[in-house]
Amino acid sequence: MDLSTTYLGLPLKNPVMPGASPLVDKLDNVRLLEDAGAAAIVMHSLFEEQITSQQLAEFAHTEFSADSSSEAGSYFPRMEDYALGPDRYLEHISKIKEVVDIPVIGSLNGTSIGGWTDHAKLIQQAGADALELNVYYVATDPNETGMEVQMRTFNILEEVKKSVTIPIALKLSPYYSSPGNFAKSLDSRGAAGLVMFNRFYQPDIDIEELEATHRLDLSNSTELRQRLRWIAIVHGHIKADIALSGGVHSHEDIIKGIMVGATTVQVVSALLKHGPGHLATMIQSFERWMEAHEYESVDQMRGSMSLGHCPDPSVYERANYLKILNLWKV
Amino acid sequence: MGTLDANEAVASVAYRMNEFFAIYPITPSSPMAEFADEWSAAGRPNLWGAVPSVLEMQSEGGAAGALHGALMAGSLSASFTASQGLLLMVPNMFKIAGELMPFCLHVTARAVATHALSIFGDHSDVMACRQTGFAMLAGGSVQEAMDTAVISQMATLRSRVPFLHFFDGFRTSHEVSKISLISDEVLHALIDDDCVHAVRDRSLTPDKPVIRGTAQNPDAFFQAREGCNSYYDALPGIVREAMAAFAAQTGRTYLPFDYEGAPDADRVIVIMGSGAEAAGETVGWLNDNGEKVGVIKVRLYRPFSVEDFAAVLPKTVKSIAVLDRTKEPGAIGEPLFLDVVAALRTAESRGLLKDSHLIRVTGGRYGLGSKEFNPAMVKAIFDELAKPDPKPEFTIGINDDVTGLSLDYDPDFEVVPAGMKQAIFFGLGSDGTVGANKNSIKIIGEDTDNYAQGYFVYDSKKAGAMTVSHLRFGPQPIRSTYLIRRAEFVACHRFDLLHQINILDYVKPGGIFLLNSPGDPHEAWDRLTRDLQEQIIAKDLSFYAIDASTVARNCGMAGRINTIMQTCYFAISGVLPKDEAIAAIKYAIKKTYGKRGDAVVQRNYEAVDRTLENLVKLDYAKTADSNILLAPLVPDNAPDFVKRITAMMIAGKGDLLPVSAFPVDGTWPTGTTQWEKRNIAEEIPVWETDLCIQCNKCALVCPHAAIRPKVYTPDLLADAPATFKSTAFKVRDYPGMLYSLQIAPEDCTGCLVCVNVCPAKDKSNPSRKAINMAPQLPLREAERENYEFFLKLPDPDRAMLKDDVKTSQFMRPLFEYSGACAGCGETPYVKLLTQLFGDRLLIANATGCSSIYGGNLPTTPYTTDPCGRGPAWANSLFEDNAEFGLGFRASLDQTRTYANVLLQGQGKLVGDDLISSILTADQSSEAGINAQRERVAALRQTLTGQTSKEALALAQIADYLVDKSVWIVGGDGWAYDIGFGGLDHVIASGRNVNILVLDTEVYSNTGGQQSKATPLGAVAKFSMAGKALAKKDLGLIATTYGTVYVARVAFGAKDAHTVTALREAESYDGPSLVIAYSHCVAHGYSLSQGVEQQKRAVACGYWPLFRFDPRRTAAGENPMKLDSAAPKASLAEFTRNETRFQMLERINPERSAMLQQMAAASVKERFAIYQQLAAASEPASPSTTDSNTPTA
Questions:
Q1: In chain A, what residues touch B1143 (CB-CB under 8 Å)?
Q2: Which 3 state secondary structure label does DSSP give B1173?
Q3: How confident is the model over B828-882, as pLDDT tens digits?
Q4: Residues of chain A with pLDDT under 50
Q5: A247 to chain B, minimum CA–CA distance in Å?
Q6: Could you give the residue numbers annotated as active site of B?
Q7: Which of A128, B415, B587, B699 has the CB geometry, 3.0–4.6 Å to B809, for a possible disulfide?
Q8: Has the ipTM of the complex gone over 0.90?
Q9: Residue A62 to residues A5, A127, B422, Cα–Cα distance (Å)
Q10: Domain-by-domain residue ranges, chain A?
């Protein structure tokens, strides 16, 4: 049984890895994940915006009150060893690299071209084997066109590619007019991989306080279907590797992901719910299923249910939509 | 070379030459202790390779005790203090000196509080230590302060006599100057290791046991006391040798007395401290202009070496003026004067001088409380000495029109050394002006060959504080230890300051004036008042303008204009070539803010880059054409005192007020903040009548009483201004009444707390609330008129109001427009106190933030009601406040008892019914108080015209028959630390006093040092690694007496609880303690979110709300009521919003996680204790508690 695969040019022992999440914040968890069979470690995202706003906020909270009074030149001690930038994140990559033998993939969400490229360089210097660009972006400006949004991503890819030598994957949202075309364009611009898809923080509304609230619920297997459809559609049209992300909760979900064409499958919510050790259960079940069904390798399975190979490709197309609607007819 | 202030310079050498520091924060010495603590925390070693330890104590008295112990046990120890702190050390100083322990105490000499507190510099503190046996060595400049610190250490080790090393508070301690630094190698060469070993050899150890601190009887004490004489006799020689050794290493020479001036001078000034530098500078100028004068700078003041003094005194001297920076009322003269007089006679008797009786010696006082001492004053003193009959006793720097002691001087006389450049910058604290100027000084000092000096003056407000930066640089070392009178370059960083003080008065003719002018800078000229235009024309100034606020906003740095104005300065002044200057500014930005993150650095870089394109040089008309006239600083209807005195102080002209203008005993009128309209808010709240639900929460949380509600009858609107808003009062019991919510536009600080607490939202557009912020300037005029009208509307009858939050806000606040920080978490409690009990309130206020915003001149916030009654407020000290307030109660009770006796003796005149009703009156409610006031008024009426001693005495004290409410107010530094012993005694006294602890969990006023109220896991000064111990539970401790009413409140979490607790505390006839959660700038988040953060503090169980009422015990109930629910949020939801907790996460995430875990466990444990206490079903039996229940 050959579970091995190659993702972003990195040889992996199997196609399953924890996705970007706070799981890797603790080194102990990282060790547990490796022991559980993780093929690679994907770091949680370094958010440039968060760093920037945190820096500016702390600057305002500490500096604006300084040098205002005869008696208090400041209200906080001067710190020699004060890290308010990406340092901790970068240190953490290095520490993870020290404790595990599997590849480590950095993850980055920038807001400015400078932020993307500078931090990408730093992540590479810290020892990351590859970089996932988390192009999480909500187009709130109604004057911004879809093309402009796409161009923004192309520019980011182009600039980051110039600044680092490690392979780059892009973590996408499903909300493009033509995700397939977009994926193809990214592929042609040199993306080594596409992670499909990001999960958005969805706003909620407090109807008593008339306030928007935000929360992030853990995913469930129903979210998998959107990924399956688009990976199935894209598979075969691009050279870039595809990582499925979102809604993977069982070994069956892994199998489905591989079957529609994913090179690798990322798991987050299931591990947050059941702990890092759950990854071992999923991988072992996946392996057992393959054995039971006499698959020889992951490669053999990959893409078998993609749009190009699927016995009934219409389910991925409009027919599927009509069919579902009919099911709900009363 | 380095560019730093004396606090840092002295700390840097003291730290390296010692092993142990016991410290306590006090202005202006705190930075020295902070530096030592920071270096210790960073693991920086001393000369011998060990990292010194720094221990914060509960008071300076405690620090002195710890130091004495450490010295006894053989450690090289040192400390830093000033003023009252030094006085608290005096008992131990006698001991340390009596036991001949080498030790250096570094003192930033500061005024001791007398008629008033002063945080500023003079020698009254060090002069109070003359008798302790400490040697005293003074430094007069930043360089000298560092050098004399080293010489003190050398000499104390060799002589065994402890040293009080001092330099002037603020003028020297806070002056930034380019000086020569002292390397470890030099210090090693100067410190005699044999002396260090000797210290250890003398240590108290069971390996060589001895006994010290014996009690001696009359047979032994005197002789033994005389045993130290030879050590003092040898000391001047040891100091001379140390000075010589120091000179050999550094090239800087000192003597116990240094003389500067003409060798054949006929007139000499004797002086010590920073004034000696100004005197020396002036002496040089006078001698260059044909005079023969000199100055003796006193370095070693104790022991006073007559030989050394006589050695430097010119033989030609005919008259001497001895200048003391202290006052000893009733003495023949001040201490240095008396020493010099005695020294002359002694010198003659020892054959060192001849005809000393022919030398005329006069004594002068100068510079008290950092009063200016400059060349004009020095010249006036020499001029006086030249007179045939000079004043034998004088003052200089003030106008004493009462006793006529002051000398006149020419304020325009200046001594500006050749090549020296001067600049003054008027800015705001929050805009970063001071920080940028500190960087400018460093740039000039370190990137050019120039010497540089910076000195910074702050006003007494915390919100919207004005700062004035004085910068000098030039080719020679700068000795000008005084403010710049007129500069070539003056910048005004906030336009409104132009209307407060005459900034252009500080510009030299032909000089440069740079203005931060809102709007198009090309139109800046048109926005000036006619008076300012006339001054610019008359002085032929180069006038530059920039809209720095907009440039800053566009760079994402709203409100932070410092680097922009700094760039303008360098660009205009040409101190450095433009490109070099910009590179240097950017380097300084990187160095200063690099640790704050790249985003901060980049925003500042961007501000620098965008500056020059926005800077405009204006060609102005040759005649003033403005129609804008300067409005008077205080309105015409202000009281005479305010117009004559206060207005001058507001205008920055307080120095010009004569002695006669001031109250002689520190007694000032209240209610003066109302006359100082500061207009510091860029945006103010605007009320939407249609949305308001009239909850009055905005008024409750307003720290400055700048938003107020009122209810009134419609007829009163007849003369209302056109824009005055009102709406129907939405309470059924008041049909037909109107309600208004009014902003005080010129007093609001724009803190946003009211807007954030407002619960009323527009259902169609929830971003619109019942109050929303809008730019102040367009609203100012109309709202000023509205507010004046609003204030004239009558207050409701207090007796008719209910006891809830909403109605509490219809009571007039008698604490308004204080100088507290925008969004302050303390002042809403103080304001509420005055609303509930203000007309009968006495406040004893501990020194700290609340005494500064409560009592710092020029204007103070406690005010009166329309009847003229209001809080009577006083501050004694930091450490004694509980006792001070208990004294109020004791005196009130005593006077009341006497009034009762007198009243009972007036039966025939007054009538038994009235006497009985007065003596038995129930005054527990507003109605009861009012009724008693009416009875007392009737009594007074009866007493009118009576001439018996008893009747007259009763008339004088009849008002004491009306209950008074005594509140003892202070912060956690006072209540938990320095004043805890007194507080404990006071609550154990059983007397009817109320204590309000404004708990910010840190020493806020002195800049965020940890107290025992600081929570576990928080970073504070002296707790850089995060506090590892839990906060002291003061409330729980107090409950153990069983007889103390105790409440823990947080107005942001449960305002009704706060109101109830204050009322219950006041009504309890015994001691009460209310501990009030007070958010603070030292917590490190936007205080606009203070109310929300208080909610989180309570919701996570961090700040449980409770009331412990001994009256319930007496009623057979459980006295403890837990008023907040079990924690339903995690501690992290509270701590993650505050920099004080988050800092540790950045520095040491592992320790942060560990402490947060401990903190979460501690919160749970404590809450469980409260739950247990509140759930206890078997309260103590009433019979037991009855005997303990205090009665007044």
A1: 76, 79, 82
A2: helix
A3: 999 999 999 999 999 999 999 999 999 999 999 999 999 999 999 999 999 999 9
A4: 330
A5: 28
A6: 27, 60, 110, 1005
A7: B699
A8: yes
A9: 50, 33, 30
A10: 5-46+98-327
